[in-house]
Amino acid sequence: MTTLKTKKVDLKVERDFALLNAETLNDLKIKHSANVKVKSDSGEIMCEVIATEELIEPGFVGLKSGTLELLNVGPNKKVSVFVRRRPASIEHVKNKTRGSVWKEGEIRSIVNDICSGNYTDLEISMFTLAQYYLGLNMDEIQYLTTFMAEYGTTLDFEEPVYDKHSIGGIPGNKVSLVIVPTVAAAGLLIPKTSSRAITSPSGTADTMEVLCDVNFTADEILEIAPKTRGMLVWGGTLDLSPLDEIVIHKVEQPLGIDPHSQMLASIFSKKVSTGVDHMVLDIPTGIGTKMPTKEDAIDYAHEATELGRRLGIQIEAALSYGEQPLGKAVGPALEAREALDVIEGKGPTSVFEKSSELAGILFELAGIAQPGQGATLAADYITKGKTKAKMEEIIGVQGGNATITGEEVVVGEFTSDVLAPKDGYIVKLSNSAIKRIAKAAGAPRHKEAGVYLHKKIGDFCKQDEKLMTIYSNSEGRLTEALNLAMNLNPYLLEGMIIKRISSGPRK
Amino acid sequence: MTTLKTKKVDLKVERDFALLNAETLNDLKIKHSANVKVKSDSGEIMCEVIATEELIEPGFVGLKSGTLELLNVGPNKKVSVFVRRRPASIEHVKNKTRGSVWKEGEIRSIVNDICSGNYTDLEISMFTLAQYYLGLNMDEIQYLTTFMAEYGTTLDFEEPVYDKHSIGGIPGNKVSLVIVPTVAAAGLLIPKTSSRAITSPSGTADTMEVLCDVNFTADEILEIAPKTRGMLVWGGTLDLSPLDEIVIHKVEQPLGIDPHSQMLASIFSKKVSTGVDHMVLDIPTGIGTKMPTKEDAIDYAHEATELGRRLGIQIEAALSYGEQPLGKAVGPALEAREALDVIEGKGPTSVFEKSSELAGILFELAGIAQPGQGATLAADYITKGKTKAKMEEIIGVQGGNATITGEEVVVGEFTSDVLAPKDGYIVKLSNSAIKRIAKAAGAPRHKEAGVYLHKKIGDFCKQDEKLMTIYSNSEGRLTEALNLAMNLNPYLLEGMIIKRISSGPRK
């Protein structure tokens, strides 16, 4: 251990690093690329050592601004620097083999070490890939979920909490903006925490943020939600499941993987943290979703309900059709507009129906509606304006313009239409192509960007009729998105030739 | 893509990085921590982007000296910087699941991409951990071995090549220094490439380097070895199996893992590269080795002989006793001295016998000795001075003092004895403790450092008799090693109490 003074350095990179003079390395008997713990009064962070001869003097440690913030120290303050000791729980990760099972205490110590910043990125990948390659059994998933929740913030509402969760995978799934005010209008407590987009053009939090603030502290949520009965906030600020954030960020996103067990633990740890008692779980199913076949979706639903049972959460899973985007709008502002349209009684029926069905399941779980009658009751709430009134209240209390209508939502000023190349019925509409086009147009960072789908699967269109309109707030991004649309051909019209393969010109 | 001028930066860290101005990042439409390829006329290297406002101006890319060397450019030279495209072969890695098998072409593209620097560290860990968690079948191991060899330097001697290989795991295993001159003395070609220590106190290359140079180019080896019939060189300079170096360095060493399939492919790819036709494979077996049980060792031997058969290499595997260090000396200089002692007819019988046995197997494979007679013939070569004469020739041609004797080898000037705490028979002598003590004393970096074992398992010792002597060339390291020895207790004497557990003082 040694005590050094902090110095802020002008280097930006994802990982935390400690820039040390070669002499300091010598004193600590370590080499560059070793891992050290830098400790202040407020916390400790594992850093990779970068060595330098001149950029930092002996006696100092160079840190990026993000690390200084996490340590809650300014420049020229004393911090302790320790050589990292390899945590013992790594052995549990290493001992994972086919058929072997992590014990409760082993999972506890792994979660503890990862959340305390004791693992290197490589060690975190070893933990995550054990799940990816070997899978976990239900006991292991239960322990993982429980300890992940324990290391996060906990919200205790002291009354039954309702929730809706979608496993995601299809663009345009803005139903939470309809479901939450509907359920809250019936008096049930639904303080929904949502995520921002990870790989999609808009997460529920991004969409809601078009209408109002979504950043609230745990105390604010505990104060506001019991009054309004519903909120739609971003879960990211709450630190509900720190391990999940680490694993997503360092392994799952860069590798593009989503191990089954980690997906379940991720969802349920946050439900445990937010005190959810009853939940409807939306599982979009079909080609182009996370659950390509009905069997995949049913297996998943069984696992989720079993995990819920073990954790004391009543789950009803609902398989939904997911082979095309939901509704017509994709991208934060366009989706917010469409959700308000549905609430005002003029949105697409697909969004209206899915929202009613899922809200209806919660009504049935709560005993407000008889089995099989929930969707009708929920539809009634929407058509009679109860949902609208509650949504105004929620937007208002979350600091937005309460009486905003769908029409008033600002969308991208630059637009471009994609036209049908010929007459025909739409037989396919690709989720992944629509996602990529909406993102190329600027979503989710530029909230006004996105795609509006004039035609959906089963619709007939005539040649040169509009298939979709791309929205952007930059001409450059609009052109990029349009080029991508031309390349990806998200729509497939019946009788259309998908690809021509030629042997080259005749000799 | 953009063209930038190089600038050398005073930052030392393992991975290659590209320090770029925030404006350059903007132009390239990337963020810090993205991966870029930096390309010169001589090569291309994948670098992680570090962003800066002031340390590098727009138009420049800051690289560490190692990266500049690999690119073979000086400062202020033009290089191209490309945004990395995720290689398609990652999908093969991701698609590896229980029961699925990598196809030949898939393994080829993975090896190609890793050796071309197209994988991030995380992606390399995903490849290695697929092997660790799921294992590979024999077809996959064969393809992996073949492609790993293809991407490395190849030595073609145009005559049968003999080799000895140990899977390692026990300290003091200096038999190659006896076997190579013995086999070469019989006229067989044995141009042995060895490794330096990875986690042990001395690799064969480290030990041989005490006596002479071990760094030779492929051309030098092709010229010298056919004349002397034997050499003992470091394989590291030859780049025989680039993928192996990458995987060891970036994943296996930091995680402390050694996946079975990768271990086989690692060994055999280098044998293919160096044109080995006949090989004896030493498999140290027993508690404290890589093969804790005889069954593990036999399984491994079967796999190795099968892989050899497929690759056209005749293998004879020999299980050897590995539950204590081999011989009495551990550490480069002490081991070199002991090997010379054995050659001069005065070393420990364990080293003499193991060397004779393994060299004898090669004599039998070559048809020089009848089955079962090889060891006797090899022992004859040693006792009659033929091994000694050949070793002098080899040391001479590798630039050392040809007539050096064991006695003349310089060992650490600071020594300290560990004494027996009581009378008794030695029942255990821990490989791992001896390794750690020798390393604490300075081995392998300080060649004179190490441990000399006066007593081995089965020996009787009286109280205060010397168990071991620690050698170092620094008093500080000697003290550290001695303290470690007191802590680790590498020797177990019969009747000794291993640990006392007390309930605390009586109340």
Q: In words, what does this structure look like?
A:
- Two copies of one chain form a homodimer.
- The first copy, chain A, is an alpha/beta fold and 507 residues long.
- Chain A has 18 helices and 18 strands.
- Chain A folds into three domains: 2-83, Barwin-like endoglucanases (Beta Barrel), CATH 2.40.40; 162-235 and 269-406, 3-Layer(aba) Sandwich (Pyrimidine Nucleoside Phosphorylase, Chain A, domain 2); 414-493, Pyrimidine nucleoside phosphorylase-like, C-terminal domain (Aldehyde Oxidoreductase, domain 3).
- In chain A, strands 1-5-2-4-3-6 form a six-stranded mixed barrel. In chain A, strands 12-15-17-13 form a four-stranded antiparallel beta sheet, with helices on both faces. Chain A has a three-stranded parallel beta sheet with strand order 7-10-11, with helices on both faces.
- In chain A, α12 (294-311) links the parallel β10 (278-285) and β11 (314-321).
- Chain A starts with a strand and ends in a 14-residue tail after the last strand.
- The mean pLDDT of chain A is 94.
- Chains A and B meet through β4, α5 and α10 of A and β4, α5 and α10 of B.
Oligomer: homodimer
Number of DSSP strand runs of chain A? 18
CATH architecture of the largest domain in chain A: 3-Layer(aba) Sandwich
Average pLDDT rating of chain A? 94
How large a portion of the residues of chain A is in β-strands, by DSSP E?
15-25%
Q: State the CATH superfamily name of the largest domain in chain A.
A: Nucleoside phosphorylase/phosphoribosyltransferase catalytic domain
> If interface size is counted as residues with C-beta under 8 Å from the partner's C-beta, which chains form the largest one?
A-B, 39 and 39 residues
Tell me the name of the CATH class of the largest domain in chain A.
Alpha Beta
